[in-house]
Amino acid sequence: MESPYGVARIAGTVQTEFALPGAEAYRTRVQVMLPAAANVEMILSAGPAFRFSGVLPWLLLMYVALPQPASTQDIRFEDYRTSVGEVEDGVLRVHLVAREVDWQPRGEGAPVLRAHAFSVGDGPPHMPGPMIRVEAGTAVEVSVTNTLDRTLVLRGLNDRDPASDVSDTPPQDGPRLPLGLIEENLRLGPGESGSVRFTPRTPGSFVYYGRTDPVDGPVPLALPGGDGPDGPFMGPLIVDSVGAVAEPNEQVMLITRWADRELDPSSWSLSWKMMINGRGWPATERLEYTVGDTVTWRVINASLQSHPMHLHGFYYEVHARGDQTSDTAFAPADRRLAVTEWLAGLGGTMRVRWIPEAPGNWLFHCHLVRHMSSGQRLAGETGPAHDGAMQDHAMEGMAGMVMGISVRPRPGGEAHAEEPVERRIQLYTSRREDVFGSEPAYSFIVDHGTTPARDSLQLPGSALVLTRDEMTEIVVYNRLEFPFGVHWHGLELESRYDGVADWSGDPGRAVPAIPPGDSLVVRIDPPRSGTFIYHVHSEPGPQLAQGMYGPLLVVEPDQPYDPEHDRVFLLASSGTEPNEQVPVVNGASDPPAVVVEAGRSYRLRFINMSTDDVKSVRLLGEGDLCLLYTSDA
Fold it and tell me: Contact, 316 vs 252, CB < 8 A?
């Protein structure tokens, strides 16, 4: 009889059932059935104690060896600010040990999962695997010991050749894969050790990973982030350019996913369970900065799912983009500003830099709702109250790919007096029954002199047109049956107005959701013109896809908005069931034709407020493609 904990040899006929210590779903009874009246019952617990019962009329020989998995207290959750290994004679040497661990990605009190992990020598297991970082041209030797009960295959420990690093045939239907990602480096049976040596010469943000015998799942062995215990079984391999000076406070974020059909059937879907550095909100690391700090992030997407990564309140400068073959570093003139950047699913990477200019609490998260909402909770967790009775919208209403950011005021910084309000807007919510079958639609409507009726409907919500550097006060009236916040996507403003209920504001003084029958005053002094969105945040259900969003435009002071020649196309998803929502343009599933005048110039603004979809837009002229625009969120 063999188990992940060791071997028990018993004279007689053996039948076993296994589910191991940790989460309740893993606890298992092992029964050993012997001939005649003999019966031995062993209860495997977190320790090597056994209970014996029955009659043993003949000799029973038994050998038991049960090395314990690392407890959740032993795990070192990575922040990836330091790398591992020692340089000896010009070679970076790292010793990794593959182990089985108990893992709580959603923090204490949450379900315990079983995972495979790497430790460095006899040290604690790292979750995810430790970071190997080296200058291009430096030889690397990685020795690995496999303490698992199954065969281990290591991949990604090699140089990447961007010119030829693509496989001819994918392991399953799909795009061709980087050879450097799928080539086998080591294959180790249980208890075996081995080593691999290579010299990385291509700078980039890569991953190495381990895979074990496959379970019945959709992830091929040649891809990172397998099913069940293999989900977080990987780590970053960072190759710096020769002579490059590492950023002193660079933060590396590794995006992984997890699924197990038996333990959590909901994980076996488009959403999976997403983690950043081995954890999901609210257990993710809290990032703390001071106003004026220079912040550098290196984000690696090893989840096999694409993610639009959104930063609240600030713009970040994109310094490099890459994949699992190489990085492309941009010259200063080519570094664009973004609040949302799309990361491709097959190893997409980015390196960004930003400077927090306002104190308070902020977020960095995937903008796909399925990757950052309460659906990311694990089976067995208590979900949020969909009747709007959440006690803490930030802790209960979000999960998964969310990083919390707290920015401290600059020491000695002076408080600034509030600017006088130059314009006021009153924004009301409305509800109309039975729009989505028996479910209602919601909308935001501006008061243009008359308070809109409670059942009036405008999809999408009223367009808000602000002027750069003009202090505007927006009063949001909640006439609905549930509390919510409103997020002003892409706008630089004070944290208390950012709209993440029970999180936005100062640490310890977060702004709550707007209660039913109440209102909230928001002050916005937009420093840049452009195309933005406002939308519900911290809502208890699918209200975003039921209409709670709208366009927000900021124009230059000397260029008033001209709706005839400045057209907005707001793309969204409409409906109450996530898998049954339909695409809409400006609120219509069958939008009317757009009529323009020949010889006139038009500005076209595209906004994607879909909950979980990517949209591609084509502008055709005389049958030829004039424009292809791919939008994330």
Answer: no
Q: How far is CA 268 from CA 105, 227, 303, 493, 607, in A?
A: 17, 9, 14, 39, 30
The pair of structure tokens assigned to 259 is 């699924």
Per-residue pLDDT reduced to its tens digit, 529-567 = 999 999 999 888 899 999 999 999 999 999 999 999 999
Nearest to 128 by CA among 233, 239, 259: 233
Q: Look up the pTM and report it.
A: 0.85
- pLDDT at position 220 over 80: no
Amino acid at 278: G
Q: In terms of pLDDT, which residue wins out, 160 or 178?
A: 160
Residue 203, phi then psi, degrees to nearest 5 = -65, 145
Compute the C-alpha angle 459/526/483, nearest 5°. 45
Among 52-61, 276-285, 371-380, 573-582, top mean pLDDT goes to: 276-285
Dihedral of alpha carbons 83, 367, 316, 363, sign: negative
Residues 247-258: tens digit of each pLDDT: 877 999 999 998
Burial of 416 (0-12, 13-18, 19+ CB in 10 A): exposed
**Which residues 6+ apart lie within 8 Å of 163 measured at CB?**
none
Q: What is the mean pLDDT of residues 159-182?
A: 64
Give DSSP secondary structure letters for 56-115: --S---EEE--PPPBPTTT-EE---SS---EEETTEEEEEEEEEEEEE-TT-TTSPPEEE
In this structure, are residues 180 and 165 in contact, taking their beta carbons and an 8 Å threshold? yes
Q: Which residue has the tokens 């209102």?
A: 519
Q: 9 is written with which tokens?
A: 């040899």
* Residue that wins the pLDDT comparison between 606 and 36: 606
Q: What stretch of H or E contains 167?
A: none
Q: Are 86 and 92 in contact (CB under 8 A)?
A: yes
φ, ψ dihedrals at 448, nearest 5°: -100, 35
pLDDT digits (tens, 9 = 90+) for 413-465: 767 778 899 999 999 999 999 999 999 999 999 999 999 999 999 999 999 99
283's CB contacts (< 8 A; 6+ apart) are: 104, 105, 106, 107, 110
| Structural contact between residues 390 and 396, judged by C-beta atoms closer than 8 angstroms | yes
267: helix, coil or strand? helix
Pairing of strands 327-329, 423-436: unpaired
Euclidean distance between CA atoms 279 and 554, whole angstroms: 37
Residues whose CB is less than 8 angstroms from the CB of residue 132 and which lie 6 or more positions away in sequence, other chains included:
83, 84, 85, 92, 94, 140, 142, 208, 235, 236, 237, 238
The Cβ-side half-sphere exposure at 233, using a 13 Å CA radius, reads 31
- Kindly report, residue by residue over 343-393, the tens digit of the pLDDT: 988 889 999 999 999 999 999 999 999 999 988 988 877 655 444 467 789
Q: Is the Cβ–Cβ distance between 207 and 347 less than 8 Å?
A: yes
pLDDT of 219 strictly over 80: no
Indicate if the pLDDT at residue 65 is higher than 80: no
Which residues lie across from 477 on neighbouring strands?
A: 428, 519
Supply the Cα-derived Rg of the chain in whole angstroms.
28
Beta bridge partners of 182: none
Q: Which of 261, 285, 255 is nearest to 345 (CA)?
A: 255
